[in-house]
Specification:
Helix content: 55-70%
Structural class: mainly alpha
Strand order of the largest sheet: 1-2
Shape: globular
Low-confidence stretches: 14-25, 233-241
Radius of gyration: 19 Å
Mean pLDDT: 81
Distance between the termini: 31 Å
Length: 257
């Protein structure tokens, strides 16, 4: 974690004055960027929205939904082909790969202040920095365990473990959500980017490393982190609503972007 945050801080110092003609190391510019991102992240609206989303995550974790979905996935999805796909998808959630890659991308702003790749790299790293501490805190607070651990369930046991939120899902989603929210993309390109943002999280379900609720919470943390960097608090981007069918009641969710 220390190397992760050191890399993030280095990037912000590096890109803080990338628009200037003569590049200079300015920690003050980096600090102002961090401060602005955190002010955007820790708003009452965003925190209240997070509380509701984590409430849904708690319901999934403390019922049979997580364990039954895990078993269904093993029986109906896992195959030789899926193993090959998951092996590649997992790499997108490796912070030891993504953080250096993002640093390289962001450094392009030094040579060309208008570089779209550089802007993507900077905003991606800023999202890692603003969301990383919160994600790590809720990992400990929920205390969830992996499907392969001794408990064999997704129930939250505060501070007992650190897998209640998927770090791979968070790390792998941030770059693609950042890309999806870049101006100028066609609708189909935006949808492809959002789909790609789910792959690293799915790979963890595939490998019995995380439950569904843990992957969803990791993706959600990525979404809020990117939106806070973009100063794009879009309010209720999802809605839950009940519905009835022939033999019971259910819950539906509508997501918009």
């Amino acid at each position: 974690m220390r190397a992760y945050f050191s890399a993030c801080l280095f990037l912000l110092c590096l890109t803080g004055q990338a628009q200037a003609k003569d590049f200079k190391f300015t920690p003050d510019a980096a600090w102002q960027t961090i401060k602005s991102d955190y002010q955007s992240f820790y708003t009452s609206e965003r925190l209240w929205r997070a509380a509701k989303f984590y409430g849904v995550g708690a319901v999934i974790a403390h019922t049979n939904i997580d364990t039954e979905f895990q078993q269904w996935h093993r029986d109906n999805v896992v195959s030789g082909t899926s193993k090959d796909v998951a092996k590649v998808a997992k790499l997108f959630g490796e912070k030891n790969i993504l953080v250096p890659l993002t640093l390289v991308a962001a450094s392009m702003q030094i040579a060309d202040a208008s570089s779209k790749t550089g802007a993507w790299g900077e905003r991606t790293m800023r999202a890692y920095l603003v969301g990383g501490p919160a994600m790590y805190a809720v990992q400990l607070l929920t205390g969830g365990s992996r499907p392969s651990d001794e408990y064999q369930d997704a129930k939250w046991r505060p501070f007992n473990d650190s897998n209640g939120v998927s770090g791979h899902s968070f790390v792998g989603a941030v770059p693609f959500i950042t890309l999806a929210q870049t101006e100028g993309l066609a609708p189909w390109q935006r949808n492809v980017a959002y789909f790609a943002s789910t792959l690293s999280g799915w790979s963890r379900i595939h490998d019995d490393a995380h439950y569904l609720s843990q992957v969803l919470l990791g993706w959600y943390m990525a979404w809020e982190s990117v939106n806070s960097v973009n100063k794009n608090d879009i309010g209720s981007w999802y809605q839950f609503h009940p519905y009835a069918f022939y033999d019971g009641l259910g819950m539906g969710v509508t997501i918009s972007w």
